[in-house]
Amino acid sequence: MARTRTTKKLAQRIDLNYFKRPTPLKRAKFWLSLLLPLLALVWIAERTIFKDSRVYSSGRLSEPHAVLEKECAVCHVQQAGAFSAKAADSACLDCHDGPSHHASQTPTPACATCHTEHRGRVNIAAASDQACAECHADLKASGNSARFASHIRSFEDGHPEFAALRSVADIHASDPGTIKLNHAIHMKPIRRSPNGPNVQLECGNCHRATSVDADLTYADPKYRAAAVSYSESDETLLARADTLGLPKPVSGRELMAPVKFANACAACHLLTFDKRFDEGVPHDKPEVIHAFLVRAFREYVAAHPAEVRVQRDPSRYLTGKALTPAVRILTPAQWVTERTAEAEDLLWRKTCKQCHALTPFTKASHRKIELPVTEGLDTGRLSGMPAELPEIAPANTTLKWMPHAKFDHGSHGGFTCVSCHAKALTSTDAGDILLPGIATCQTCHAPGPEHAESRCFECHTYHDWSRRKEVTPKFTLPTLRTSGR
Amino acid sequence: MRMDKTQRGWALVSLAILAISAVVYALYASESPHGPRGGSTIGFAFGIIGFAFVIFAALLGARKRVPTWRVGRAQAWMRGHLWLGFLALPMIFFHGGFHFGGTLTCVLMWLLIITVFSGVFGAVLQHYVPRVMTSDVPLETIYDEIGNVRSLLREEADRAYESLCGSLGLSNSSNREVQRAGGFTALRTIAASAVPLRTSAAVSAGASAAVAAAPEIILLSEEANAPLSRFYLDEMRPFLERPKQRGQRLANTDKARTVFSGLRTLLPAAAHVTLADLEDICDEARQLTRQQRLHRWLHGWLLLHIPLSLALILLGAIHAVMALRY
């Protein structure tokens, strides 16, 4: 008889208490459910016993703070009696007393608003654009009008053209510098000195970063060695008072040094003043040049007494000018006076004026130098005539075109100068500002993986580090490395 | 639980919660100067919601332990466990801004991911495996009793064999008392030698003879029963004792059918009924093995899911407290 299955028969095979017996699966589930939470608890307890709070950290600290990874209490200061131990601004200010960038600024954000920690080994100084846009997206001016663009959200969104290039009331911005330089001419093959060969100048022949040794291809050792009476302030514009200080010391490769005559111009622009002399006048103030000329001619006439017999040179007299006698016999002093006047006439009207702006000097004053030598002169008075000399306008070379931003030429050293300063190739007017516009920067500095950093902090700094206060050190190395966590 | 149309309500509500949360998160992430953080107001809110979902999902275990609690239907709890437990993952991702953070938060994130995905894996298994079980294991029994049922099958097979070939000479009696379904206590197994026939006593005892008809005793000659003896002792009994051992022909349905067909040609017709019983016993044993395997798939993931979720809740609570502190 074949096997038969009925529900009753099948049920009879089942132990009613089967569910009370632990099966391997149930047993494993139970023990694992006990063991795993227990393991977690042991782990936390072990960390607590060893006073290691790192386990609760929401992420690794930024690179500059990595040394404090174990020192939670340095920033998370627990107030007496309170459970909370939040990182407070005071903890940041203990080490970094960075003043905000405007004294009148309201409100001043908390440190962590812009500098968020526990986000891994990131650049904590790199504040996000949104942090800046908190104010700059809708900037409220404390006065009648905002000095800055008031709707900047990012470099791409709302950032105006660089201030130095912006036109004001339809007047194009121009270089306040007074040195007359035609860049276009200098970028083409050009004759080196009146009788020299043609040369092709490179930007670097004249422009070098401040910490870099000057290129001496077109330098003159004599001028380099000579002491000058003018100062740096005569050459460069002082930094604006509201220029923000940088957080770190400058490397010297950020900005270009002012171009020096001795280093970059002297080889071509000879300051010759008389055919009797090979050397040129010093590259200095008119008084110094005048003294040099008087001295040079005195020494010359002393060495060449026959020179006092002066023959008229028809080629040097222009129509309308009173003729001097064909042959004149001068005293040495007269001769010196006359030659000095001639040399200065050449210098003030041509050589110096080619590059410098000279204050107009009157004919009258000039005539004093040209007093008829036959009438007799007080040589002592002639030799000291600085009151009648022209004044050379300060060069006003702008060293920092963007006082509210930082730029590092050193970081851009891989690019040719003209790839950014393209206007240098065509600029004929010394008033042209050859600073590249914002569009040039945005070619590379834009959001996205294939572009360079374009967030605000790349160029701007929030804190005015020039007003930083010194902090009192409070860590010792052994304490930092071994103390409680 | 099957993922069918009855889940639509929960699915739609969950999708709506997810969509709203995603929109809120996107807006919040784009407006946050330094990106989303768990400590911000919205990040914190996501954390609370996510942890609440985890807690709710975990309460299913408590609900199961105390089925008499009048706190909603078990099915609703199960659906809530499934959908809100799944939603806990995006909520916690939104909470952390998709960052894993420090050591504890990283551990928590991985615990959550593994717990949720083991749960999803379990839900998929719960959807498909019962159907496979129904089709592949019609003789399904209670999983915990498989061991007992298997030994009963072995005893039943022994008796069937002995009805043709005489005593096996095995002493497999047991005096363990167990309470059987039907509300009576009986000897669990009955020694074949003691009760060679299916007696009323044996039937009422409800032991190994539960499904077996009383075999007729048709003792075959030694020569006639030789193929059966060889097969039973060398192949079938080892299979019933160790069904999971590899390389056994009886473990495979087709091969087993071939083996029994061959035996039928070798044994007299009178033995064919008993032979059919033996084949039936082998089939049931095979199904029990299949059931065991399916059962492990069906419930094995819980070995990961439950302990990890408990650890997650414990560490999550610690994280919440310490995050409030720091």
List the helices and strands and how they pair.
The complex is a heterodimer of chains A (485) and B (326).
Chain A: H1 7-11, H2 24-49, H3 72-75, H4 89-93, H5 111-114, H6 129-136, H7 183-186, E1 190-191, E2 198-199, H8 203-206, H9 221-225, H10 232-235, H11 261-265, H12 286-303, E3 309-311, E4 327-329, H13 332-351, H14 363-369, H15 379-383, H16 417-420, H17 438-444, H18 477-482
Antiparallel strand pairs in A: 1-2, 3-4
Chain B: H1 8-31, H2 41-65, H3 74-96, H4 103-136, H5 146-165, E1 177-180, E2 184-187, H6 200-205, H7 222-241, H8 253-266, H9 272-300, H10 302-325
Antiparallel strand pairs in B: 1-2
Entry summary:
The complex is a heterodimer of chains A (485) and B (326). Chain A is mainly alpha-helical and 485 residues long.
What does this entry look like structurally?
The complex is a heterodimer of chains A (485) and B (326). About 5% of the residues of chain A have low confidence. In chain A, strand 1 and strand 2 form a beta hairpin. The radius of gyration of chain A is 39 Å and the shape is elongated. Chain A has 18 helices and four strands. In chain A, helix 12 crosses helix 13. In chain A, the strands form two sheets. Chain A has a two-stranded antiparallel ribbon. A two-stranded antiparallel ribbon of chain A has the order 3-4. Chain A is mainly α and 485 residues long. Helix content of chain A is 29%, strand content 2%. Among the domains of chain A are: 96 residues, no CATH class; 103 residues, no CATH class. Chain B has a two-stranded antiparallel sheet. Chain B has 326 residues and is mainly α. About 11% of the residues of chain B have low confidence. Chain B is 67% helix and 2% strand. Chain B has a domain of 159 residues. Chain B starts with 7 loop residues before the first helix and ends with a helix.
